[in-house]
Design a protein that fits this description.
The protein has about 290 residues and is mainly alpha-helical. About 45% of the residues lie in helices and about 5% in strands. The protein has a two-stranded parallel ribbon. Strands 3-4 form a two-stranded parallel ribbon.
């Protein structure tokens, strides 16, 4: 029996509803999320290179930060010093902060003077702990005392500079003439002689080098502790004739040989380039080695 027009419409509507229901069911049953993105080999390589570059940059930044910290926090040293003559860098080496060192210099610039060692405790900003650490090393060269009881104004009496006690030592390369004169038997002349030779040399690399200075006491070594720091190295290929001949380990003839070699054959690569020159001995090369760079 043929379906009426109303039946056909009803069947079509039911079929449409069933189709929609089937589609909705498929979405919930079979939808497992978006298809994952496939990363190509080339893209993987690019991401790997980028990651490695970022790790290197991070490592460089950490090294720079560490180096900056080292610069900002220099190594603290202790050595004999006179606060009335010490310069800015000396105060920094002793562990004072830059603003504390500036306070000390400003105080002196205004005519201030520390008359005895304990007066240094009054430096603005200096902590008690820092003063106690530095106190054993403070030596006021001339402690100005009050005028005498005779009423003579402007009469100054100077205290005798104390000498080092047995077992005390000072830094061989860092001590100035004031500190050197603390050594028993060493006066202004001998102290200046040691400093002049140290400057010409570029710094001591061994206490035995004191034997090169005439008229020093044979046991003067015991008053020093060795500090192989701040050795000044001379660039041999660019130094002037005057710079080279001033060094106590080079003779006039040896300097001429060095300059002639550089002029005719080019820059020296090492002392081996002069090994067959009769003006030089193996012992010469050994003692010159710490003081020159190629």
């Amino acid at each position: 029996m043929p379906l009426s027009r109303a039946d056909r419409i009803g069947a079509t509507v039911l079929s449409f509803i069933a189709l929609v229901a089937l589609l909705v069911l498929c979405v919930f049953v079979f939808d497992k999320g978006p298809t994952p993105y496939e990363v190509s080999t080339e893209e993987q390589r690019a991401m790997s290179v980028f990651g490695e570059r970022m790790r290197r940059e991070d490592s460089v930044q950490r090294r720079k930060a560490f180096a900056a910290k080292e610069v900002d926090e220099p190594m603290v040293e202790t050595f004999v010093f006179d606060p009335n003559t010490a310069d800015y860098n000396t105060f920094l080496r002793l562990g004072l902060r830059p603003w504390q060192a500036k306070n000390a210099l400003k105080y002196r610039a205004k005519g201030g003077r520390w008359r005895k060692s304990d007066d240094f405790a009054r430096l603005y900003g200096l902590t008690k702990a820092d003063f106690l650490r530095l106190r054993p090393y403070i030596v006021i060269k001339e402690e100005v005392l009050a005028a005498s009881l005779t009423g003579q104004k402007d009469t100054l009496r100077y205290a005798r500079v104390p000498k080092l006690a047995e077992g005390q030592t000072i830094a061989l390369n860092a001590s100035d003439t004031t500190a050197l004169k603390l050594i028993p038997g060493v006066g202004s002349y001998t102290a200046a002689k040691i400093v002049r030779y140290r400057e010409r040399l570029g710094g001591f690399v061994s206490k035995s080098q004191l034997n090169d200075i005439p008229d020093l006491s044979p046991d003067i070594h015991r008053w020093f502790h060795f500090d192989a720091t701040d050795i000044r190295r001379i660039p041999i290929n660019t130094a002037t004739f005057k710079d080279l001949v001033r060094h106590p380990y080079l003779s006039y003839e040896q300097v001429k040989a060095i300059v002639t070699h550089i002029r005719h054959y080019g820059a020296l690569r090492s002392w081996n380039d002069l090994r067959y020159n009769t003006l030089f001995k193996e012992s010469d090369f050994q003692r010159l080695l710490p003081y020159f760079e190629f």
